[in-house]
Amino acid sequence: MQSWLPWVTVILPAVSAAVLGSLKEEQKALRNAISLGTALVTAGIVLFLMPAVIQDGVVRTAPLLVTPAFSIELRVDHLGMMFALIASGLWVFAMLYSIGYMAHENGQRTYFTFFTLSLGVTMGIAFAANLFILYFFYEFLTLTTYPLVIHYRTKEAMVAGAKYIVYSLCGATLILAGIVLTYTWTGSVAFSELSILGGAPRLAVLSTTALALAFALYIAGFGVKAAIMPLHSWLPSAMVAPTPVSALLHAVAVVKAGVFGVLRTMYSVFGDEVMHEMAVSPYFVAVLLATILAGSVFALNQDVLKRRLAYSTVSQLGYIMLGAALLTPMGFKGGMLHMFNHSLMKITLFFCAGLIAEGTGKTRVSELAGIGRSMPLTMTAFALASIGMIGALPMNGFWSKWFLINGSVESGMSAAVVVLAVSALLNAAYFLPISISAFFHKPAGVQLQAHGPGHGHHQGLGEGHPAMLWPTLALACLCLVLGFWPDLPVALVSLVVQAFLG
Amino acid sequence: MPNHGTVQSILPILAVLFPLLSAVAAGILGERRSKARDLVAAMGCLGAFLSVVLMYPALSRGNTVVYHLLQGVWPSGISFRVDFLGLLVGAVASLVWLASTIYAWAYMGHEGQRTRYYFFNNLTLAAMMGVSTAGDLLSLLLFFEALTFASYVLVVHREDQEARSAGNLYLFMGVFGGLCLITGMALQYYFGHTLALDSGTMHSLGTLKPLVASLLVLGFGIKAGMVPVHIWLPQAHPVAPSPASALLSGVMIKAGAYGIVRVGLMALEDGHGQGAFYEGLGLAVITTGLFTMIFGVFMALQSGNSKRMLAYHSISQMGYILMGAGVAAYLGLGHGAMGFGGAVYHIINHALFKAGLFLAVGVVYLSTEELDMYKLGGLWRNFPFTAAAMLIAAMGITGFPGLNGYASKTMLHHSIVEAAQHMAHTTGSMYLWWGEKVFSLTGVGTACSFIKLFGLTFLGKRPERFATVRGEPLPVKVGMGILCVVMLAIGLAPNLLVNVGLGPAATGVGYDHHFVDEYLGHLDFWYPKDVIAILITLALGLGLFTVGMRTGIFHLHFPKALSIEYCGRALAGSAVRGWARLAVSWQLLTDRATRRLQDGITTSSNLAKNIDYDPQSRTSAEFNLTNLDFDTLILVTVLGVFLALYIPLQVLSGRM
User: Fold this and answer.
1) How big is the A-B interface in CB pairs under 8 Å?
2) Residue A179 contacts residue A139 (beta carbons within 8 Å)
3) ipTM
4) pLDDT, mean of residues A96-119
C-alpha cells in the first residue's frame, strides 16, 4: 500500500520543533500544548497505520529523488511498526511527565524543541526504507539528543555529552563503512521482503570471512547505541541528563534505535540464511551473554539509582539482541517481546527515580530507606516494575523470559539458559533491596523538613506532581495487565518473526 | 468407577476471587472502619472455603472441575482444574486461613499496620487457592510466584532487623526456586509439548527427564522446606506475627509439597509407573524425606524458642510428607497408593495441628511477651482453653491414637514398611529397613519435643511474674476452636476422610482402583499392633524427655561451623568478595581502554579546533600543526577517509 502518512510522523515533529524553538521562554502553556499535541498526533498516525501494515505487510511512501543508488522514501514494515509503536506511544507518556518534571527547570525552550525533534528523527529510523535513510536519521538522532544530555550545562554534563558524541559518531562511521561495502557488493541498499545480501545477486568471489567482517562493522557501529559491552560506557555517563530524557532516550528511543539497527542488520541486511552461512551468531551470542552478565554485575555496585538503572539497561538490551541472535522463531519472538516489555518496565523505573529525586532530592539507593511511607504509590509502581525485570510471573517481563528460554533450548544453547537464570537472580539482587528498604526500613534519622522548599508540589502523602505520577502509575498497571494478558504484544511480535523467519 | 468427565464451572475462579476482592476491600476500608475490615477479611476466607467445598458434588460423581481463562498466548490459558487432590489442599488451606484470620482480630491489636496485614493475608490466600486449583504448570507458577511475593510482606511484618534478614533470605530463595521452576517448565514445554498437570506428561522427555524432574522438585522443595534448601524456614517462620506463622508453617509450605506430589505424578512412566528412573526418583525423594525428618526433629529438640522449635518441626513433618510422596513414586501406581494417601493425609493433618500449635504459642506470647519455653511454666491456670487446644494439637503431631496425626502417620508407616519389604525382596538391600528405623526414631524425638513444649509452658511451677497475666480473648478461642473440632473429628473417624477424599484422589490421579478400594478403603486404623507401636514410641519419647531434662542434653548445640547457614555465609562472603574484585578490575580495564580511546579522540578533535589559527594556544604549540593550511588539513582528512574506506574495500571485494 502507498501512503504519504509516514512522512507526517517525521515532518510534523520537525515543524513543531521549529515552532517551539521560535516561541518565547515564557509561553509555557502554548509550548506544553504543542509538544503534547505533536506526540499525541504522531502516536495516533502510527496507530492508524497499524491495521494497514498488519494487513498488507508493508506501507511505503512514493519515492522521491530516485537515483541508481538509492531513493528518498519511507517504508513501514512489521519491525519498523513495532519500534515506532513503542517509541511514539511512550513519547506521549514521557512528554506528559516532562511537563511535570520541567515545570520548575530552566531552559525549557531548548528542552522541548529538541525533545520533539527527536521524536521525528526516531520515526525516521523506524520507517527508513533503505540503509542510507537509516544512516541519515541515525546520525541525526545523536545530534538532536546531544542538547538534551547536556541540559544542565554542568562540567559533568558537558563531559558526558562529549563522550556521547564521540562514541556515537565513531560508531556511525563504522556503519557507513558497512553500508559502502554492502552497496559495492550488491548494488542495492533498499530494504525489502528479502534481505539485501541474501536476496540480491552478489559478487561470486565474496567469501564468508568478508561478509563476517562487514557484519562486525555493522554490529560495532550499531552496538554503540545498543550499549554492547565494551561500547556501553557512554550510557551510564549520560545519566546526568534530566530524568525524562534518561527515561525515554536512554531506556527506549536511543538505545532501542541501536538495537533496531542491529536487528535490521541481522534480518534485513544479512538475513537468516546468510547469518547461518557466516556462522557468526555463536560469537555474537557469546559477546551478548558477557554483556548481560557484566551489566548486571556492574549494576550491583551502583549506588546512584539512575546509574544502576543504566547498567540494568545495558544488561537487558543484551536480552533483546540475544533473542534475535539465536536465529530461531521462539528466540526472536522473545527478543522482540522484550524490546516491548523492557521499554515499559524501564521507563516506569526511571519515572519513579525521577519522582523520588524531584520530591525528596534523593538520588542514591542508600538514601531511600523508608521512602515507601511518604510515596507509597511511586514505590509500588517501582516494586511492580522490578518484579517484572526479574521475570517473575504476574508481570509482563516473564513472557519475554519464557520465550527467550524456549528459544535458547530450541537453538541448543544451554549456556544462554544458564546465563538468563543467573542474570535474573542478579536482577533480583539489585532491584529488590531498593523496594525492600523503601517499604520496610526506617528512614535514617528523621528529618524535620522531609521535603525541602522549591521541590514541586507536595499534596497528601508527598507523592510527586500529578503529571508525573499518573503516567508512571498507568505504565506500571500496563506492565501488570500485560503479564496476565500478553496476547496483543505477542501477536504483533509474531508478525515480525513471521515476516523474517517464515 | 465413575467416568472421568469434566464440568465447566466458575467455582475455582471464585475461590481465587473471594480472597482477592476481600483483600482489596479490606485495604479500602482501612483503619478507620477496622471492624468492617476485619470482618471482610474473614468473609473472604469463608468464601474461598465454600467455593472449594461446593465443588465436592461434581467431583464425587467422578468429574473434574475445569475453567479456562485468557486462552491465547498462555499455552493453555490461565486454566483451573480441580480434582480431589486439589480440593483437599484448597479446602484445608482456606479453613486454616479462616481460623487464623479470626484469631488475628484479637492478636493483631498488638502489632502495627493491620490494614496491610489483612490485605496481604488475603492476597496470599488468593495465591494459595490458585496453587491448589491451577490446571497447568504455568498457571501454577503464576500463583506460586504471587505466593512468594505476597507472603514476603507477612514475614517482614515486624520490620525489625531480624525480620528483614529472614525476609531477604526467604525472598531470594523464593526467587531462585521460581527460576528453577521456569527453567524446568520451559524444558518440559519445549520437549514434552504440554504443561498439563496430568499423570505421565514427562513421558516424552527422554534423557532430559531427570534434569526436568530435579529442577521442578528443587523449585518446589525450597518452598516445602526440604533439606538442604530449608535454611530460610527456621528464620522466616518464627519472626512473622503468630497468625501469619501459622499460615506460613501450616499451609504455605504445603504449596511446595503439593507441587512435589504433582511432579511425582507427571514423571510416571507409560502411565503406570514402572521403570528404573521412576524408582530412582522415588528413592531419592524418600532419602531426602528421611534426612529432612530426622534433621528437623534434631534441631527442634535443641531449640528453647518455642516458635523456632515449631518451625523445625515443620521441616521434620515435611520430611514425612516427602517420604510418603517418595514411596508413592518408588512403589508405582499399585502399592504406592498407601504412600500417596499418607502424604496427602499428612498434608491436611499437619496444616491443622501446626497452625493450632502456632496459634496456641501465640496466645502465650501475646500475654507474657516470652517465647523461651524454659522461662515459662504452670500457665494452664491462666489459659485453660489454650492449654487444651495445644494438648490436642500436640497429641495430633505426636500421633496419639484418637487424634488426626495418628491416622496419617499410621498410613505413612505402613507405606515405608511396604517399601522396605519391596526393596528387601527385589534387591536384598536393607537400606529402607533402616529408613523405617529413622521414621520411628523421629517419632520418639517428636513425642519428646512436644512433651517438653507442653510441660515447660503449661505445667510445673508458675513464675511469679506471670501470676496475673490475663486470659485469652474470644476471637482467639474461636480461631483455635475451629481447628480443634476438625482435628478431633478426623481423629475419631479416620476412615471417613480416606473414603470420601483420599481414595478418590488416588484413583483420580491414576492409581489402581482395585488396590485403592481393597487397601485404603478397608484400612483398620485401630489394628492393635499399630496402636501398641505408637504407644511405645510415645513412652520412649517420655523417657527421652526425662533423661534430657536431667542431663541437660537439650542445651547442647551443634558447632556453628557445621551449620549450612554458617558455611553458606562464609562461602557467599568469599564469593561476593571475589566477584566484586573481578567486577571492579573488569570495570577498571574497560574504563581505562575507553578513556584512552576518548583521550585519543579528544586530542584529534583538539587538532581540529586549531583550524582557526591560534598560535598562542598551548595545544597548537604542542602539536605544532599551526603551520598547516586549513585547506591542507581538509585535503588530508578527505584523503584519509577515502583510503580508510577504499583499501579494505579493495581487499575484501577483490582478493578475499
Assistant:
1) 130
2) no
3) 0.76
4) 88
